[in-house]
Amino acid sequence: MALLEIRDVVKTFGDFTAVNHVSLAVEAGEFFTLLGPSGCGKTTLLRMLAGFEQPDSGEILLDGKNMAGVPPEKRPVHTVFQSYALFPHMTVAQNIAFPLKMAGVASAEIPKRVDEVLEDVRLQQFARRYPHELSGGQRQRVAIARALVNRPRLLLLDEPLSALDAKLREQMQIELINLQKEVGITFVYVTHDQGEALALSHRIAVMSQGQVEQLDAPETIYSYPKSRFVADFIGQCNLLDATITEVQPGRMKVEIEGVGTAEALPVAGAQVGGKGTLTLRPEKIKLGATLPQGNADEVHFKGRVHDCLYLGDVTIYIVELDNGTLVETMLPNSGSGKAKFFDDNDLVELAWRFDAGHFVLA
Amino acid sequence: MKSKSLAKWLISGPPLLYLLLFFAIPSLIMAFAAFRFPGDYGGLMPLTTANPDTGATELLINFGNWRDFLTLENFQRFFDEPIYFELFVKSFWYAGLTTVICIVLAYPLAWLIARSPRKTRDLLVLLVILPFWSNFLIRVYAWMIILGPQSYFSRALNSVLAVFGVEPVSLLFSQFAVIVGLVYVHLPFMVLPLYANLEKHDMALLDAAQDLGANAWQRFWKVTWPLSLPGVWAGTALVFIPALGMFAIPDLLGGTNSMMIGNLIKQQYLDSRDWPFGSVLSIMLTFTVLLLAALAAWAGSRGKDKR
Amino acid sequence: MKKVSSWVWAAAILVYAFLYLPLAIVVVFSFNDSALNAEWVGFTFKWYQMLLHDDVMLEAALHTLLIGLVTCVVSTVLGTLAGFAMYKWRLRLLPALVLTPIAIPEILMGVSLLIFFVMLNMTLGLVSITLSHIAFCIGFVAIVVRSRLQGMDESLVEAARDLGASPVTAFRAVTLPLIMPGIIAGALMAFTLSIDDFVISFFTAGVGSNTLPLEIYSRVKVPMKLNPEVNAISSLLMLLTLSLILIVSKVAPSALRSE
C-alpha cells in the first residue's frame, strides 16, 4: 500500500478550479516532486496535504487513513515553507524544540533530540542564534531540521530553494538528496524549476491547470514527454508541427510542416493522418559544415545559421532551414581552437537519429 | 464551524459593545437632539416626565402631539442666517491654508528623511513624532509666549517694521496666530504619510528623468510630485479634517474675529446651552468631514491605481 | 544613493527648528526668575517649588494619571481584541465603529458624550472622562495592532499549526509574542492620548474633576495672568513623556518604529 494516496481530489476557489480531479500515489521513502508553472495547483495540493485547505471532493489517505477533517496539528506531516517561517522571536534551538514540545516529548529529552538534528544539518554552533542572524542557506537548514526533528511520516517542501542564489541552490540540492537518503523520510517537493525537479526527484508529477499532465521518472519525462506542454515546460525543446504519413512496426514517417519527411519512433495510437508535434531536444541534433550522408537511421537537413548565443561552455545555434523554420541546436565549445564553430549566415547541415525525435499526438 | 463563530463573537464582542454604547448610541442621540426643542433652562426640552403621584417615568410625546416636541426649526435657522454658512467657509479657509502650508513645510523634511540612510532615518522620524507626544495645550501655550506682545519675537518684528514706518502689529489673538498654531500642531501628520510615500519611490526614476533631459524642477513636478500624491492626500485628510473641527487653538490664540465652527459648537453647548442648535452644527460638521474623508480616500486610491 | 541637495537640508533644519524652538522656550522660561514670559531675567527653581505646594495642580495631575492608567489598560485590551478581529475576519460594523472616532474631529465625540451622560443623569467627573477616553483610544490601539498583524508573515502561524500546535497554542506561542511590540506601542499611545486629551475632557468633565490639560487651559485662558508655573508643569510633562518613550525604546525598540 502506498504511503500517501490522493484520490480524485478537487479544490475550487470561487470560479477558479485550482486542483481538478487529481489522483496519485506516493510510496514510502520516495522523493516525489510536484512540478508546474505558478497557478498550476501544486501549492494548493500541498496545502491540502498539510491540512491548511480541505478538498471540495475526493480523498487524501495517509497510511490508509482518511485525512478529511484532521487539522494540521494532528497530521504526521510537516512542511518546509517557502519563506521558511522560522519564528523570529525564538532561537534556532527553540525553533527546533517547538514541534517536540507540541508533541509532548519529555523536556529532559528535548535538548538531546535538538542536538542530534542540528548535527544532521551541520548547525551545532548556531543553536543559540536567532533566525535573523543566519544566512539564507542556514535558515533553510534550520527550517528543514525543525520539520524533521520529530520524524514525520511525510515532509512537504514548498519551493524551499527559491529564495537562494544559484550557487547555493545547487549545493542545497545535493544536501537535500543526501539528507533524504539518510533519514529515509518521504519527501513531497513542490517547485516550478524543472532543473531542480529533474535533479532531485525519484518521480515527478508535471501539473498544468489543476491536472497532472504526466507522472514518471525524470528521465522518462525528459526524453518521452507525453504532451506538448510537458515537452515545452521541461528543458529546451524544438516543437515541430507534423503529420503521420506512414506507420510501420518499429518506425514511422512524419511530414514536418514545410520542412520535409522525417522518420520517428512510432507512438501508441499512431495512425496515418494523425497530427501532432515532433519534439526534439537541441542537444540531440548533430551540427556540422558537412555531415556524412546515407545513414538510414538518421534524419538529415540543410540550413543556415540564423543566430548564435555564445554561453561559454556551449554555443546555441538557431538554424534556419531552407523553408524558414527555425531549429535550435547546441554544440559544446570543446575541440574548437576558436571560441565557437560557426557564425551567423554560415551554411550548415543538421542530422539526428530517428529515435531522438519523440512524436506527441495532438 | 460553530466554535469559530463563537470565537469571533468572544473576540469582537467586547470592543463592539463598548463602542456601540459609548460612541454609536451617543452619536445617534446627538443626531436626534437636532430635531428637538431646547429646554427652558438650556439643554433639551424633556420628552418624559416623572408622575408626581407614583414617581414613575411617563412619556410626554405621542402620535398626536409629536409636533410640539420635534421640529426642523434648528436646521431652518442654520440655513436662514448666512453668518453660520460664512463661519463654515471661514473654517474651510483656515483648514485649507493650514494644509497647504503643512505640505510646503513637510515636503523637504519628508524628502530628507526618505533619502537618509536607514539608521538616521528612524531617528529623524522620531524627531518629527516627539513634539507630537508632548501635550497639545503646551504646544499651543508655547506660541502664546512667542507671539505675546512683550516677547523677543514680537519686539524684534515690530522694530523691523518701524524701520519701514509700519505701525506695530499685535501677533497674538489674530488670524495669523491661529494659522501658526494650526500648522504647528498638525505638521507631523503631514510629514509621516508623505515620508511613507516618498520612501517607496524608486530613485532610478529620477535618474531616468535626468538622463532623458529633465532639470531638477521638471524632475520634481513631472515625476516626484505626481507619484507622491497618494501621500499628499493621506496627509491632507489627517491635517484638514482635525483642523476643521478645532476649537482650542482659535480659543487660545485667536481674537474675536477668528472663531471657527468648533468654537460655535462649544458656545452652543456650554455657553448659550442651545443643545438642539449645537447638534445641528455638529451634524453639519460630521457630514462635511465624512464627505471629505470619502473624497480623500477616493483620491488616494485613484493615485494608487496609477502606479 | 543620490545626495540630498543642500537647500533641502537647510529647509528641513528650519522645519525642525520650527518644531522644537517653541517647546524649548517653554522649558527655558520655566527657569526664568520673572512672572512674565517675555525676557530672561535670571535662573530660578521657584516655579517648581510653587508647583509642589499647588494642591489644585497636584490634584489635577493625580486625576490625569489615574484616568490615563485606567484608559491605557482597558483600551489596550479592547483595542487588541478589535485589531485582531479586524485582521482575522471580514467585519462591517466593528471597523466602522473603531475607525470613525479617529476620523472625525474630537469635538463631535465630546459633545455627543456630554448629551449622553447628561441624559443618563450621570454626574460628570472622573468616571465619565475615563469612559470617554477609552472610547476614542480603542481605535488607535486597534489600528496599531492590526498593522502589526498584517506585517506578520502568515506562514508563521501555519508553521506552528503544522508542527503540532492547536489554534490557541499557536496564538499564545507565536502570534502574541510577535505582536507584543504593537500592543506596547498601542498602550503607550493610549496612555499619552489620554493624559494629553483636552477637548473630550473639556466636555465630559464636571466640577472638581479637573485634569492637567483642563487646569492648564483655565490658567492660560486668562492672558494677563500668564503663570510660569504652567511652564514648570509643562516641562515636567514633557520630561515624563520623553522618559516613557525612552523606556519603551529600550524595552521594545520595534514598538516605536514606523508608527
UniProtKB/TrEMBL annotation, chain A:
EC number annotated for this UniProt entry: 7.6.2.11
UniProt key word Cell membrane: yes
Record's keyword annotation contains Cell inner membrane: no
A Pfam family: TOBE_2
CDD domains attached to this UniProt entry: ABC_PotA_N (cd03300)
SUPFAM superfamilies: MOP-like, P-loop containing nucleoside triphosphate hydrolases
Molecular function, one GO term: ATP binding
Reaction it catalyzes: ATP + H2O + polyamine-[polyamine-binding protein]Side 1 = ADP + phosphate + polyamineSide 2 + [polyamine-binding protein]Side 1
Family membership noted in the UniProt record: Belongs to the ABC transporter superfamily. Spermidine/putrescine importer (TC 3.A.1.11.1) family.
Subunit structure, as described in the record: The complex is composed of two ATP-binding proteins (PotA), two transmembrane proteins (PotB and PotC) and a solute-binding protein (PotD).
Functional description taken from the UniProt entry: Part of the ABC transporter complex PotABCD involved in spermidine/putrescine import. Responsible for energy coupling to the transport system.
Name of this protein: Spermidine/putrescine import ATP-binding protein PotA
From TrEMBL, chain B:
Domain ABC transmembrane type-1 as annotated: residue spans: 88-296
Pfam family name, one: BPD_transp_1
InterPro entries, per database record: MetI-like, MetI-like_sf
Segments forming a coiled coil: none
Mode of membrane association: Multi-pass membrane protein
Cell membrane as UniProt keyword: yes
Family: Belongs to the binding-protein-dependent transport system permease family. CysTW subfamily.
Name of protein: Polyamine transporter PotB
Name of the gene encoding the protein in the UniProt record: potB
From TrEMBL, chain C:
Keyword Membrane: yes
Source species: Chitiniphilus shinanonensis
Family note: Belongs to the binding-protein-dependent transport system permease family. CysTW subfamily.
Compartment(s): Cell membrane
Keywords assigned by UniProt, alphabetized: Cell membrane, Membrane, Transmembrane, Transmembrane helix, Transport
Record's bilayer topology term: Multi-pass membrane protein
Protein name: Polyamine transporter PotC
Keyword Cell membrane: yes
